[in-house]
Write a structure and sequence with these properties.
The structure holds two protein chains of two kinds. By secondary structure, chain A is an alpha+beta fold. Chain A has helices spanning 2-28, 55-61, 117-129, 135-138, 145-150, 181-186, 256-264, 277-285, 314-323, 326-333, 372-382, 397-412, 424-432, 453-460, 481-494, 498-515; strands spanning 35-40, 69-71, 82-84, 87-93, 98-103, 161-164, 169-173, 213-219, 223-228, 247-252, 270-271, 291-295, 298-303, 339-341, 388-394, 416-422, 440-441, 443-446, 518-529, 534-535, 539-540, 544-545, 551-552. In chain A, the strands form seven sheets. A five-stranded mixed β-sheet of chain A has the order 8-9-10-1-11, with helices on one face. In chain A, strand 21 and strand 22 (544-545) form a beta hairpin. In chain A, helix 9 (314-323) runs antiparallel to helix 11 (372-382) and helix 15 (481-494) runs antiparallel to helix 16. Chain A is globular and about 70 Å long. Chain B is mainly alpha-helical. In chain B, 64% of the residues lie in helices and 9% in strands. Chain B has 13 helices and eight strands. Classes of the chains: A alpha+beta, B mainly alpha. At the A-B interface, helix 8, helix 10, helix 12 and strand 16 of A face loops of B.
Chain lengths: 553, 350
Amino acid sequence: MRDRKSRVVVALVAIIGVVATGTSSARTTSHRGGTLKLLAKAAGGTLDPQVNYTLQYWQLYQATYDGLLAFKKAGGSEAFKVVPDLASGYKLSNGDKTWTFTLRKGIKFSNGQTVTVNDVVASLRRIFKVKSPTAGGFYSGIIGASKCLKVPATCTLAGGVSANAAKNTVTINLTAPDPEFTYKLAVPHASILPANSPPNDAGTKLLPGTGAYYFASYNPNKQLVMKRNPYFKEWSHDAMPDGYPDQITQSFGLTVEAQITAIENGQYDWTLEAPPADRLTEMGTKYAAQTHVETLTAFWYAPMNVNLAPFTSLKARQAVNYAIDRNALVKIFGGPKLAVPSCQVLPPGFPGNKPYCPYTKNPGTTWSAPDVAKAKQLVNESGQKGAKVTVLSSDDEVNKAVGVYLASVLNQIGFKATAKTISGNIFFTYAQNTKNKVQINVQQWYQDYPAASDFLHILFGCESFHPGSDSSINIAGFCNKPINDEMHKALKLEQTNFPAANQLWAKIDKQVTDQAPMATLFTPRHIDFVSKRVGNFVFSKQFYWLVDQSWVQ
Amino acid sequence: MSGAIVDEVLASPGGDLVIAAASPWQLARRRLLRNRVALVMAALLAVIVTLCLCAPLYAHHIAHTHPFQSSLDATTIVNGKRVPVMVQSTEGLGLGVTPIGPTWDLHHYFLGADEQGRDVAARLLYGGRNSLLIGTAAALITCTLAVLIGVVAGFFGGLLDGVLSRFLDLIWAFPVYLLAISLSTVLIARGISFGPFHLESGSLLLPITIIGVVYIPYVARPVRGEVLSIRRREFVEAAIGLGASNWRLLWNEVLPNVITTVIVLFPLMLAIDMLTEAALSFLSIGVQAPQASWGTIILDGQDVLYTRPAVALAPGIAIALTVLALNVLGDGIRDALDPRAKLRRTDKES
């Protein structure tokens, strides 16, 4: 009996060993093939790479579309490097105002059509024709862009973009040197598409790309399917490496709770959504090996409308900044492993960041504790005590909780605040439009590219404020002429002296923080929760998890 | 039920039969007092209402918590030890902050905390006040307007009846929850303005008005039917023959006979209104934070359902008990006011 018992134990140990080895090998041995099954609560809108401005699809465009240049497909900060993609290289001339790109030969779109210089010219024009959200912000420096911005339908970029088919080159002329232009050409809005692509937002229509995968089908109510591009041959591992899975799907409709359970059960492989707060502890303990936490260059902030009472008053805005307990917000976000308190615009480690925090008990470089007494005093001095304030937030769990917390803080310091949530589908554009009279709201900003201007100039520059428009990313409506002039000075300085420009951006960061058009809340960290069968998890700081670089068994 | 004196045969303590004179209201009260189930439910309802009314007393003098203020850094006492209300995970990757669960100590987070570190028990009582207030006020609006419309339509008939009946049909044509959700979604962002009157989006009057309006046909139609029937009764014909004015007919003959229908429907409407309020608040288009209702607390609880189910369960149970009590009490009132209805039912069942 005893002997038999020990044999059973040995057999069990052997079985566990085999299972464990199998599991481990699934995660460590490379494997080409299979279907990687991703989840999202809802579709991310249009699939047009020159129109879509969501992280959800930008992440997928990394494997489907190419630009002349690309951010390197690598882990960590290496991903901030820009490398030649469809162009084999480029030359600068005319005082860095003329960029001449040489196109690689033999690259084909997923429909079999060869990429030509005409496709490049047409794609650059198409940015304006489809009214890409960044057409004015990123590409207005191209000669002819101002005309295209006024009359998009007839955009030719005459004098700005030209092609030489014989030499296989494309020339872009700028009105002024732009040291950030390489970044701007490496984001999905500058994707190269066939010249015969529709001159309007393609919506759910599938546009051929040059990447390792192509979009095979898209039903926004159900699923997005990516398959291997049959015409793809790797030309640059840094720019567009070949992927591992044969097929990548993103399914829509499950609740976040159900998504986490499905991944735990191995039915799906990853979710786009931030995990619910009540599942974090379980994920960090039972599923620690499947949970990846990464630092981000992003910030959560609460823009305050400087053109609408009570936040027309600087003291009222500063009061909000003093009153917020950033540690409390960190708790809402999941604890100190997932967020770090912050007071300024530029995130830690970002170009131009110089730690600065005036809104704390002991002002200096880091936030320590809220100063509610000072906040109450400032509200009294502002003459806005008792003013009615509505805190608007998106209706997802964390945003809603932050909105409720802010309303609580505002009530504590003398305002009469209520928290209101609206659907995440319309929140971003609703908050931007001044017609909706949003006083204060909860926002996040994730870098488009690693330059201080992407935070300071985009979010708080006069050029980003368009009253009455759904596309007014300067949500606070902050337009301070001296500070805006400084921003232009910094942008110009970037052309000659990047370190000196970053010094100037640090000064601007301080000035904007002092003017408090927003309350910076915290710097978030990013959680990716993957299934057991996912191996080779590579996290790019630029575009996050490189989906196609993971394999599934 | 025109207020006439009715005789009832009662048994005296000596065993003799006594003929007692009693008004219909007295008879109804006696019948209601004999219905033990209805009385138990009335008592339960009274307890719930009393507890909710005592919310400030509980929050400020017993639990010492602020139910509308986020308290993420708060601490409390459990088994004699001071502990944080929001507990940071220290195991594994150290992810997640979990609110404290029920302590079953009335003085210290009796039902635990929600995701903002707020005392669930205190919020439950405050939320109950709002839910009951909205339910009652909405039911009053429904019944008042429904009686007005139903009586006018049924009594005057003709074109007026046609217009009012089509208006009721129009509201009736929409699924009631869909209508309430649509109105709330549109109005919650901007409020309502009627000339000088403005209801702000965060005001409780907004859900009260919306819920009160969408249920009007549910009461107005039976009232209109009752009025049509009363209009042809002999005592009304007699009053007309005696030269009574319309106003007198309405006030003295029709309304007193219709009021019993409304009294029967009121607790049922109150229950339905409370359920609707909970649904709207759960969808974030009813009561707005930082105010609470049972619906908003269930919504808050959804975020911690996995780790702290008590946050959603407690208001869920409170709604279920209140609605059960109101429905049973409503049935009891109906049986008391219209014993023939019970007899008709019993005949059918047998």
